[in-house]
Amino acid sequence: MSPATDPTPVPAADDKAPLQLLWRDGVPLSAPLPVTHDQQGAALLAELYASAPDRVHVRAMMNTTVDGAVAGADGTSGSLRNPDDSFVFGVLRALTDVVVVGSQTVRAEDYRRPLGRRDLLDPSRRPAGGSRPALAIWTSTGELPSSIEAEWPTYLLSPAEHAARVQERSGMPAEHVIAAGSAREAVESLVARGYRGIQAEGGPSTLGRLAEEGLLDELCVSVSHRTVGGPSPRMIDGQAHDQRWELSSLLVGRHATITRYRRPL
């Protein structure tokens, strides 16, 4: 179409158009339920994603593209962020006791003081009742950005043979370095500190460790409506395993499709 015959430009779509909840608690809804990007919508999602407060729950939350990439052209997941993904992500962070993440992701992304939506913080919706989530970083080197603070609180998960080096290089207090030879030991150590709601946010090798040992109870996947190509790894990168999942909820927005899968009981 030539410029002379172009129709009147259509105004840009609202970046924060409501998400549509199509599937809830394992069954399709008879009609879509709008979820607005505001306090009311956040409260609805907090109820949707809530886990039993009296049991340990390990949730993975990752963003991918339609072609399966977990990082954009700049090598970070941050470049894939969009209003729909950010809205749900903020709700989930307000529901967790501790955020678990690999050190490479911490170095590439901004992981200083993860908090969650402020309108969901009082009263606390975290299983342990805390005002903010702890941060647990998997590392065998202790090489961390200077912005990471022990007092947040922050813990370092390290193989026992590297724990001393990790403590020395990171400068973290010794009591903040958790020697864990396996993903199960890491989870058990966090639970022993009172953290029952655990959210793994990547990278792929961190999710791979948890998946290999059958520790993931839930997968929350935000698929951004874009493609990027390139050699990006898959969401879970680790030893081969075969785990079946059941769709629990489905949200569709203008920018992303967000699914929640649970392990069958």
Q: Could you list the spans in which at least 5 consecutive residues all have pLDDT below 50?
A: 1-11
Give the overall silhouette. globular
Q: Give, in order, the helices and strands.
A: EEHEHEHEEHEHEHEEE
**Side-by-side strand order of the widest sheet:** 2-1-10-11-9-3-8-4-5-6-7
Structural class: alpha/beta
CA-CA gap between termini: 56 Å
Q: And the CATH topology?
A: Dihydrofolate Reductase, subunit A
Gyration radius, rounded: 19 Å
What is the count of helical runs? 6
Q: CATH H level: which superfamily?
A: Dihydrofolate Reductase, subunit A
Q: Per DSSP, what share of the residues sits in E-state strands of 2 or more residues?
A: 25-35%
Count of structural domains = 1
Number of strands: 11
Helical proportion, percent range: 10-25%
Largest sheet: 11 strands, mixed
Give the CATH level 1 class: Alpha Beta
**CATH hierarchy: architecture:** 3-Layer(aba) Sandwich
Average pLDDT: 91
How does this model look, in words?
InterPro entries: DHFR-like_dom_sf, RibDG_C, Riboflavin_Biosynth_HTPR. This is Deaminase. One of its GO terms (biological process) is riboflavin biosynthetic process. It comes from Brachybacterium muris UCD-AY4. Residues 57-250 form the Bacterial bifunctional deaminase-reductase C-terminal domain. This protein is of the alpha/beta class. The chain has one domain (56-260): Dihydrofolate Reductase, subunit A, CATH 3.40.430. The chain has six helices and eleven strands. The chain has helices at residues 39-49, 83-93, 103-108, 163-170, 183-192, 204-212; strands at residues 19-24, 27-35, 57-65, 98-102, 134-138, 154-158, 177-179, 197-200, 218-224, 246-252, 256-262. The protein has an eleven-stranded mixed sheet with strand order 2-1-10-11-9-3-8-4-5-6-7, with helices on both faces. Helix 1 (39-49) crosses helix 2.
